[in-house]
Write a structure and sequence with these properties.
Layout: E1 13-17, H1 21-35, E2 40-44, H2 50-63, E3 68-73, H3 80-90, E4 97-103, H4 111-117, E5 121-124, H5 132-142, E6 146-147, H6 149-159, H7 163-177, E7 181-182, H8 184-190, H9 200-208, H10 211-224, H11 229-255, H12 260-267, H13 271-281, H14 286-306, H15 311-323
Parallel strand pairs: 1-4, 1-5, 2-3, 3-4, 6-7
Helix pairs in contact: 2-3, 3-4, 5-6, 6-8, 9-10, 9-13, 10-11, 11-13, 11-14, 12-13, 14-15
Amino acid sequence: MLGGMAATELKAAYLLSGSDRPKIARALRRLRDRIGSDATEQLHAREVTGEDAVAACNAMGLFVDGGRLVIVDEVERWKADDVKAVAVYLASPAPATVLALVAGELKADAAISKAVAKAGELLTYDVPKKRLPEWVGEQFARLGAKADKDACRALVEIVGDDLDELSSEIDKLAAWAGGEQITLAAVEEIAVGRAETPIFSLTDAWGRRDVAAVLATTESLLERTHRPRSGELLRIVASLVGHVGRVRRCQRLAEEGVRPRDAASSLKMHPFVAEKAFGQAANFSAAELADAIVRLAELDAAAKGGSRMPTELELDRALVDVTRRVA
């Protein structure tokens, strides 16, 4: 790996790939720290070819004493000729020069991987989606912060699975907490939602059959939105329709004896989201979930101009109908 070596022991080339961009950034920072920022050139595959990268490696050797570092980002964009140029260079690389190639997720047999493997090292940094909450907890710990499991899971639900965006929110929350425990409530209050369905507080309240919380959370979503209020209302309806449909599928699977962890993949859910949906399914009868789907479809039609009543009144009435327990 990159840590703990003298500069002379570095490989001629590294290919850093995978979804864990924050970890890749830290690895590159270690390289820069050891070689020196003045001896580093940063390039991007959108703007340079493989031959350009090779020329940069060779040119730096003429003007810089000691180690040199050339970084090229997004090399998965390169074509066959670009990879060929790098492979030829690596057969006889410039002395004391490190070529660091950065890519997203690559196939195991990618040509650029084969080219680098002969003269350098392949470093893959991936985070399986099912491990995202665990990864969030590890990042908090790395910063000396403490976060409970519910907070880590909530952060993934709010922000989504982009690790750069998650890392940004983790840094912000860790600084805000100042060593105190980071709780679910803190994440809900502070984290910036970027995921497609950052309304888990609403769906959680519905799953508990808490009418008051459903109405209060909905109003909060409508008040805090940056999009037109009418557009946010339609998004809420669409998200609820999708969520209730998933809970209904989970209920059917539970009746067949399928466990949440086994259903997660087929349902395309994070395992912890599947567990939550299975738990919510137990709070409703099959008939109630079927009726909820129909009621939300009626709400969707009303919200799109099918009713003379104010749309937000239609929303409140429908939310009460699909949440409350009928004696």
